[in-house]
Every structure is written in C-alpha cells, then in structure tokens.
Amino acid sequence: MPNKVYRKILHMGIQNEMEYRTNYWIQLVSFFVPMMTQFFLWLAIFQSSGQGTIVGYTFQEMLIYIIMAAVTGKLVAAGFEYEIAGDIKEGGLGKFLVQPLNYFAYRILKFLGAKAVQSILVIVFAAVVLIWLRIGLHVPVGWDSALRYLIALPGALLLNFVIYYALSGIAFWLTESTGLFYTLSLIIYIASGSVFPLTIFGETIAKLLGMLPFSYIVFFPVNMITGKLTPTEAVTGIGMQWLWIVVILLVARWVWSSGVRRYVAVGG
User: Fold this and answer.
1) What are the TM regions of this chain, as residue ranges (predicted)?
2) pLDDT in tens, 233-266
3) What's the rounded Cα separation, in Å, for the pair 159 and 75?
4) Over the stretch 131-149, which tens digit does the pLDDT of each residue have?
5) Rounded to two decimals, what is the model's pTM?
6) How far is residue 132 from each of residues 61, 120, 125, measured CA to CA in Å?
7) d(C-alpha 72, C-alpha 2), whole Å
8) Which parts of 137-217 fold into alpha helices (H)?
9) For the residues of 24-63, what is the DSSP string, one character each?
10) How many CB atoms lie within 10 A of CB 110?
11) Which 3 state secondary structure label does DSSP give 79?
C-alpha cells in the first residue's frame, strides 16, 4: 500500500509539470537570456584583453561552461522550499504527521517527478547545442566528457534537494521565511558556480568555496564536461558529492526532528 501511494506521488509530480506547460515553456525560454548575456560579456572580455586564457578557461571552454552551468542550474533547481514553508505556516504539514506517509519521501518523489519531465527537454537541448558547438564552432566536446557529466548529474540533483530540504526547516522557527530563502538561494547560486566559474574569485576564495557542498552542484559537474578535471579528481569529486548528501541528510533529519517537536507543541 505505501509503495502504491509513493508511485502516485511520483506520477503527481510528472502531471503537475505537464499541467502547467505554458508556464514551463516560458521559464525554459527565460533561462536563455542570462546565457546569452554571459556569452556577449565573455566575448567582450576575451576580445578586449587579447589573452587566450582567462580565469583558467579558454574562450571555447568558457562557452561550454556558461551553457552547461545554465543547463545544470535549471535541471537541479529547487523552489519547493516556499511550498514547505507554506505547509508549516498554514498547518498543511499536520496531515502528514497523522498519516503513515513520510513527508521527506513525499517531497523528493514529487521533486523527482517534476524533474523527469524537465530533464528530457533540457538534456535534449544541451545535446543539440553541444553538437552545434562541436561541428559548427569546432569546440572540443568529447563524448567521454559528456558521459562523465551525466554520471555527476544525479549527485548534483540530490545534493541540491537535501540542501534546500534542510534549509526549509527554518520555517519552523520563522513566521515569514521568504526573504531569508531568497537571500540564501542567491548565495548558493553564486557559491555553486552558476553565475561564473569559481576561479574568478581568485585562488584562495576558489579553494575555500570548493570545500563547501555548493560547488558540487554546478561547478564540479560542469567541469567534468569542460575537461578541467583529471580522472582522480573526477572520482574524488563524485565521492565528495555523496559524502555531502549523507552529511546534509543527517543535518536535515536533526533540523526537522527539532522543528516537528516545536510544531506539535505550538499546534497542540
């Protein structure tokens, strides 16, 4: 019986994504705008500097980075933290506490269901663009690099989910958490390498940011496809992804256990 319920939740995530097709296509188109802005920005920087390599990337490698960073950011994006805050604030979480239904399982299945639809479209788009870069602009994109990127992608997706699930527990202590979520999302967006490669911040800060879990959401998987990582660094990075997932899952469990005790005390 529980398995049947969880299958329905997964299906519900897919249906929700398909139901709002117009909104989804608008969002999909919107992520082209920052990508094109980055393209012209880096084109101007490379042309004006006259250098072949900037912040450790050639122009061709930077092209791959800005495209795949935008694709990866879209694929792993959360957004459910606002729904969770609403469940906590408005009492919707209560029904999950009295039913034999795990709230974490409900959230991750709904999240994965939505991502299943998005992933097909975005990965097809990425494949077309990479083929165009390889054939049209002679950008060296290897199929082995693309395969390594796909291997790193599930870890990036789950890591981003558990980070935002843990953060959403803040709503147990704050009546209004929208502003905090927005600020934290912006910090994570920059620290993950979604805007620029982390090397733009200089060697010291890049190393510090590389020690945080956020760099394994975008910066690490994208560098799998730019060819910046040795085989040893690639294997180590995948291990770090899953280590961070376990660590943050434990943090999330502690936050939610503490929060639910507080939620029951206030509600009761």
Assistant:
1) 24-46, 62-80, 116-137, 149-174, 180-201, 208-226, 238-256
2) 999 999 999 999 999 999 999 999 998 887 765 5
3) 12
4) 777 766 666 677 788 888 8
5) 0.85
6) 14, 18, 11
7) 32
8) 143-168, 178-191, 203-210
9) HHHHHHHTHHHHHHHHHHHHHHHHHH--SEETTEEHHHHH
10) 20
11) coil
